[in-house]
User: What shape does this take?
Amino acid sequence: MPTIYEVAARAGVSPATVSRVFNGQNVSAERSRRVREAAEAMGFTPNRVARTLRLQNSEVIALVIPDIENPFFTSLARGVEDVAQAAGYSVVLCNTDEDQAKEARYLDIALSANMAGVILAAAGDHSDLDALIRRGRPIVAVDRGPHGYDIDAVMVDSRAGGRAATKALADQGYRRIACVSGPRDVETATLRAEGWRAAVTGLGLDYDDQYLIYADFRVDGGNKAMRQLVELPEPPDAVFVANNLMGVGALQLLAERGMLPPVIGMAVFGDLPIFSPTPLAVTLVSLPARHLGVTAADLLLKRINGDDQPPRTIVLRNQIVPSA
Amino acid sequence: MPTIYEVAARAGVSPATVSRVFNGQNVSAERSRRVREAAEAMGFTPNRVARTLRLQNSEVIALVIPDIENPFFTSLARGVEDVAQAAGYSVVLCNTDEDQAKEARYLDIALSANMAGVILAAAGDHSDLDALIRRGRPIVAVDRGPHGYDIDAVMVDSRAGGRAATKALADQGYRRIACVSGPRDVETATLRAEGWRAAVTGLGLDYDDQYLIYADFRVDGGNKAMRQLVELPEPPDAVFVANNLMGVGALQLLAERGMLPPVIGMAVFGDLPIFSPTPLAVTLVSLPARHLGVTAADLLLKRINGDDQPPRTIVLRNQIVPSA
DNA sequence: CTTGACGATGAAATCGATTTCTGCGATGGT
DNA sequence: ACCATCGCAGAAATCGATTTCATCGTCAAG
Assistant: This one.
C-alpha cells in the first residue's frame, strides 16, 4: 500500500506537502493537483494507525453493551450510530455478554486504541474507568448508572417504572404480585425490584420472600423464574418482569401451562419483541431505546468537542402502556 | 498515561528491555521483576496504536453486517464473537444499514486500521475488496456471496430453501403462491426468489407477474408488500417471504385484516424473531445463524494463522420446519 | 530602496512500541 | 590458557502520518 512518502516521491514534493494537501493547509494549486493525481493513480489511503498515533485521537467511538442479542440494546445502538455517523464518527460495538472481564478488556482497547470516547452500559457494579478518565477520554453511561463516577449519564427511571408497573397490576385487581428481576450486581435490576417492593409495601399488597427472584435478564432465566413462581405452594396471581427478554421467557412458560395473562397478571419493563395475533394482556413500561442512544451520542460528541460543563444525568421518560 | 520509556526510566533499564519483558524474550529475572514492578506501580498499558503501527497487524477482526437490528445477524455475530474471543481476538461490529457507501467506509477503516481480517455480509453486489486483498488481509463472506471474488464463503442454500418453502406451501394445497423478496442487488434476495420461481413453474402452479415483489428485507417493507398483494384484483392464496423481518411485517398486516395463516398460507426464510402465545401456521426455513458465524470465524482465524489452501465455500444445511 | 509580513515549502522531530544490530561478559570445550 | 558460543542488554532504526521550525521568495508599506 502506498504511503505518503511514495506519493510525495511520485509527485516530486515533500511528504509534508502531501499531508497538507489532505488536511487543507496552504499548498499551491499546481502542487496540490500533482499530489492529488499521484495519490489517485497509486490508490493512496492514509494510514489511520499512523495518523492516530500522531494525533493521539481517532474518530471512532466505542459502544459497550452487555447483550447484543437484546433488541433493546440493538435499538439503542442504532440511535448511537445514526448520530455518530452524521458527525463523521464510526462506532464499534463491543458485546460484553454481562461479563465484567470482557468489559474491562474492551475498555482497555478503547483506551489504548486512542478512541475518541466511550458509551457504556455497564455489565456490573464495579467497572474501572479510572484509566480512561485520567486520559481525559469522555465516557457516557447509558441505561445503567456510572457507579460512583461523576460522569454524564442517560437513563430511564427504573425505580419509578417498577413501581408504576406494579401499581398497574394492583389496579387491575391482582394482590399477590411477584417480581422477576435481573442480576443482583446490575443496577437496573435492583432498582426495578426496589420499585416493585415500594409499590407492594406502599399499597399493602401481599408479600412473600419467595416472590422476588433474581434471574439473569435472559429469555431462559425468565422462563425458569416463572416456573419457580407458578410451582410455589402459594403462587402469585401476577408478576412484574424486569426486562423484555425475561418477559418472553415468562410468557413461554405461561403459554405452555395455559396460564397466559390475564389468568396470571403480567407487567414487563421494556418492549416485548413479540408478535401476537390476539393482543396480549400485558402491561408494558415502554422504553425509548433508540432515543437513549441518540441522547448519549449527542452528549458524548459534545464532550469530545470540548464541552466541559459539569456532568449531566438525563432521565428520559418511560411510558406505561396498559394491557390490552 | 505512562509509556514504555517512562517505565524503562523508572526501572533503570532500556525501553527495549521493557518491551522484551512483555513479549516473552530473554530478560534476566532481576530486571524482569523491576520492570514489572515499575509497570504495575505506574499502571502501564502498552499503547495498541503504536504496537499496531510497528507490527502492521492487530488482534481485532471486523464483522460487517447490513442490519444490526435483525436478530439473524446478531445471532451470527454472537457466533463470531465466541470463537474470536476464545482465540484472543476482539470483534468490532460494523453496521452498514444495507448501504454500500457505509460499507465501503468500514472496509476502508478495517484496512487502514490494520485489522487482522474481515467477515463480511455484503450490502450489495459490488463491494470493493481489491485493496484489502492486495494487502493480504483475509476476508470471509458470510450469508451473502463474495460477488466475483475468489474468497472463502459460508452460506446457506438460498435457492434450495426458497424452492423447498414454496413446495411446502403447494403441498399444503395452496396454488396461487406469491413471493416477497429483498433488494434486487442483494444476492440472497434474488436467489430466494429464483427458488420460488423454480418451484412455481416446476410444480405448474399459477403464476402472475405481480406475485413477485422486491421489497427491502425490513419489517415495514414486508408489511407494505403484503398489503399490495392482498389488494390485488386476484390476490394470492399463499406467500413465501424471503426473510425473517419481512415475515413479521407480513404477519402484522394479515393480523389486522383477519387473514392470518392458514387463511393465507405463509412460509418464511429464516426464523421469526417473535414469540406467539398461540402457535403460528407458518412454515419456516430455519437457519443456523450462530453456526454461520462460528464457521466463518473459524475459517478467518485459519487464514490469519497462515492457511493458504485455495478458498472454500461452505454451505450449511437449513431445515424446513413445517407449520404447526 | 529597505524592511516587514506573509505564503509556500522542505527538513526533521514526534507519537510509542518492536526489532535488528552490536557489544559485553560469562561459560564451556579443548 | 584460548577461542567459540551464548545470554542479556542498550542504541538506534522502523512503522506512516502530522507539525514545528527554518528558509526562501514575493509583495506591500514606508
Residues 71-86 of chain A form the longest helix (16 residues). Residues 107 and 158 of chain A are 25 Å apart (CA to CA). Chain A has a mean pLDDT of 93.
